[in-house]
Amino acid sequence: MVTTTPPATDRNRSRRAKSAARPGDRIFSGLSKGSGITLLVIMAAIAGFLTYRAVLAISKDSVNFFTTFEWNPAGDPPVFGIAVLAFGTIVSSVIAMLIAVPVAIGIALFISHYAPRKLAKPLAYVVDLLAAVPSIIYGLWGAIFLVPYLDGLNKWLDQYLGWTYIFDKSSDGVARNMFTVGILLAIMILPIITNVTREVFLQAPKMHEEAALALGATRWEVVRMAVLPFGRSGIISASMLGLGRALGETMAVAVVLSPSFLLSGHLLDPGGGTFAQNIAAKFNEANEFGRDALIASGLVLFVITLLVNGAARMIIARRKEYSGANA
Amino acid sequence: MAKRIDVSGLSAYYGSHKAIDDISMTVEPRSVTAFIGPSGCGKSTFLRTLNRMHEVTPGGRVEGKVMLDDENLYGSGVDPVAVRRTVGMVFQRPNPFPTMSIFDNVAAGLRLNGSYKKSELADIVEKSLKGANLWNEVKDRLNKPGSGLSGGQQQRLCIARAIAVEPEVLLMDEPCSALDPISTLAIEDLIGELKERFTIVIVTHNMQQAARVSDRTAFFNLAAVGQPGKLIELDDTERIFSNPSVQATEDYISGRFG
Amino acid sequence: MSHAVQERPVAFAKPRGPLSHARLPRWTPIAVAAGSVAAGVGIGLLAGWHSKVQWGLVSALLFVLATYAVTAKVEGARQAKDRVATSLVWVSFVLAVVPLLSLAWVTVSKGMEVLDGYFLTHSMNGVLDAEAGGGVYHALLGTIEQVGIATLIAAPIGLLTAVYLVEYGTGKLAKAVTFFVDVMTGIPSIVAGLFILATWNLMLGFGPSGFAGAMALAILMMPVVVRSTEEMLKLVPNELREASLALGVPKWRTILKVVLPTAIGGITTGVMLAVARITGETAPVLLLVFGTKLINPNPFEGAQSSLPLYVYEQYAVGTDAAVARAWAAALVLIAFVMILNLVARGIARWKAPKTGR
């Protein structure tokens, strides 16, 4: 549009509007903008300082930081590497996901489509509350209660599935192993994944469910035709959120696992470690250089969780476009 | 194909609220029966009792008998899933499955009920889309999502999906209320063709539409808000619109209320 | 046109079966479930499995298989699939509820053994590891101080950031803030602890203190506050803002007097839920607050304790008396968190804005 008014009038008017509101508005908008910038600065500082300390540590590492199976930064020369930690972190999280995602989808469906209505509401509320239980309590419960209960299952898996190598149990110790950690992590992330998935399932359009019903679909076929396809990206992003939690979980793992710096594919043998668990366990005895080494491993964990969360965000963003096109 | 529906003493409830009261009527095969009446008179609820969709809504409950030829839809041992396969339905708002292609949308009902060879499936899909007067518009893009079609095309896609499984009866719940006049006309033409093969029941708010497409018309009314809806009269469409036997029908049709 | 010259032989939809077919009575799933559990328990007893986990898994497996077999025989394959899906959904529900119930039950029953007034009002000063007695007073005090300071830092920054994003934010800066708030939500708590360790302790040379822990907790709390406040502010209808602006009220007063009061219930809920979340965080406290047996009321000087850290320490000690204290402290912690949650949700319900669902 072409305006015939001279631009000066426009500027005048806006200046007047601004000056009328100047003192309060300036301060308030400045404050809120400042807070936003503070947040960015904190994020930058986290990345910057962790990287700085990590570089300090890694530059003095006498071996390859990524492929070494040992953690002895106090030695002469210092020897430390994250291979075991990366392996343990990924393995425990994968086990947790394999268990938690299907079960969470099941519970979410239970709440959204299967449970009697009187049961569904309170149940959803309880799951909400469970997401708030502190992780140290899961850890305490896991170490004292879950571990002895899983002994039998461990022996069983060894006996019948020992040939798969991963379930081969070579030592006779208690079940303070990666498998137990995986199960405990699964229980911990279950409420988070369930909550997000349930919300998505509840949003599945009624009219598509009715369409499927009217074609003579059974309840399961309705879910398969009209609910799951709609919820797919929601399930994925919920799982990513859960994965992010599992990767960074510290205390529950630290309490349950009996750690070692052996890389073992036998999930039922005690040993292994995760980034977060290792930091919590080694921190007290570490000198300043040792702390820098731990910070270096923390940085790797930070980057991994950033990637996972970034992926989740991208999926959510894509879904928005997708559903917009269908609206 | 095309069976007679015989309803007797049918009442439907939402929880403790009675939505329709003691309805009895006969719907003739291979004809179009229109349900008209003011909002809230229970005509849509009644329609949904004819394929047991009413009981899907929370608290939905039905009493009475609906005979499809000689089988009672509410008899013991009757599987509602089988009923809905036999009595198809088209909804107010077009609702093709958004994640499926046009082809898969039409094939959706077939795939539920057994395995077909690829060529068989293609044949039936083509036949159904032709039956819904949509084939020429979509034959080059069967693999595109159904949500990319216009509203009227989507509704005809839903009709194709419903007739692909060759039901006995086709229920239509205000199928044109979300469409523009041209799409409405296309659907009305289609209804005229479909009645050669199916028993059709259509709920409509538009009395001209009822007059144009239907052979028989049923008028529903309710005594007051909160009261259950009742069937006032059912007769040949011509008679209902020219010389109804009940005063309320005449009042409604001549626009005195509703 | 539809009158094609040469129609291919046209396929037909498969013929329907009758409307009614043999159906299982309504009590079938319950009967199958009861039978499976009985069989699972029986097998477990016979085989002498010590762990109930195995009993449960066998029962669940039997339940699903039996459901399929019975339904497939009587009702047909499609119905069998449907029933198996239903039974799987139920099984996953039970599978999840059992450990969670066990967690709640164990914490409460074990925690009650030691928990009393004495436990809440005394520290661990002079209590030996193997000895019964002692309490959580110092840890409770530490938790309240650390969480309080963290809230004082995080709540205003988070709130103002949300106001910026909803009321002022446009362009690149707002996009960047939104993105990094999401990124920040995913930071593992131990990484936040390491960050404060790297700056406050290693670079600036401060020792462990409650304040250091509070800063790490604040980092974890900020994004949660921003997210929930943002959601609440977005729920405030634009008409309210416009009505106020049209009266000549300046924007900042509109936000303070109209927008924030409308959303205050939801914002309070969000902040309280965030507080509940950081109350249970152990890892950063472990790195930065260090833990002590003594009462240290000064969060800026010297090591403190905190509830989650106390649980961890007592568990690590491992004596019977210490583990009993760990459970009691866990119960105090869980009660603290749950009360915060319930009150927050109560406020949300009570102050729920009339718009939306």
TrEMBL record, chain A:
Q: What Pfam families does the record tag this protein with?
A: BPD_transp_1
Q: Kindly give the membrane topology term recorded for this protein.
A: Multi-pass membrane protein
Q: Where are the transmembrane segments?
A: 36-59, 79-111, 123-150, 178-197, 246-268, 293-312
Q: Which CDD domains match?
A: TM_PBP2
**Where are the stretches annotated Disordered?**
1-21
Give the location in the cell: Cell membrane
Keyword annotations for this protein, in alphabetical order, are: Cell membrane, Membrane, Phosphate transport, Transmembrane, Transmembrane helix, Transport
Q: Which residues form the ABC transmembrane type-1 domain?
A: 86-312
The record ties this protein, via PANTHER family, to: PHOSPHATE TRANSPORT SYSTEM PERMEASE PROTEIN PST (PTHR30425), PHOSPHATE TRANSPORT SYSTEM PERMEASE PROTEIN PSTC (PTHR30425:SF1)
* Function, in words: Part of the binding-protein-dependent transport system for phosphate; probably responsible for the translocation of the substrate across the membrane.
What's this protein's family per the entry?
Belongs to the binding-protein-dependent transport system permease family. CysTW subfamily.
> This chain belongs to which protein, by name?
Phosphate transport system permease protein
Give the gene that encodes this protein. pstC
TrEMBL record, chain B:
- ABC transporter domain: residues covered: 5-247
Species this protein is from:
Streptomyces omiyaensis
> What SUPFAM superfamilies does the annotation carry?
P-loop containing nucleoside triphosphate hydrolases
Q: Which SMART domains match?
A: AAA (SM00382)
Molecular-function GO terms, alphabetical: ATP binding
**Presence of the UniProt keyword Cytoplasm in the record:** no
Q: What are the boundaries of the signal sequence? A: none
Keyword Ligase (UniProt): no
Q: What is this protein called?
A: Phosphate ABC transporter ATP-binding protein PstB
Could you list this entry's UniProt keywords, alphabetically sorted: ATP-binding, Nucleotide-binding, Translocase, Transport
PROSITE patterns, alphabetized? ABC_TRANSPORTER_1, ABC_TRANSPORTER_2
UniProtKB/TrEMBL annotation, chain C:
Report the locations given in the UniProt record: Cell membrane
Report the membrane topology from the UniProt record.
Multi-pass membrane protein
Q: Name one Pfam family in it.
A: BPD_transp_1
Transmembrane residues, as ranges?
A: 30-49, 55-72, 84-106, 147-166, 178-200, 206-226, 258-278, 326-348
Q: Which domain of life is it from?
A: Bacteria
Which residues constitute the signal peptide according to the record? none
Primary location: membrane
Q: Which UniProt keywords apply?
A: Cell membrane, Membrane, Phosphate transport, Transmembrane, Transmembrane helix, Transport
Q: Where is the ABC transmembrane type-1 domain?
A: 140-344
Q: Which family does it belong to?
A: Belongs to the binding-protein-dependent transport system permease family. CysTW subfamily.
NCBIfam families per record: 3a0107s02c
Q: What does this protein do?
A: Part of the binding-protein-dependent transport system for phosphate; probably responsible for the translocation of the substrate across the membrane.
- The name this protein goes by in its record: Phosphate transport system permease protein PstA
Q: Which organism is it from?
A: Streptomyces omiyaensis
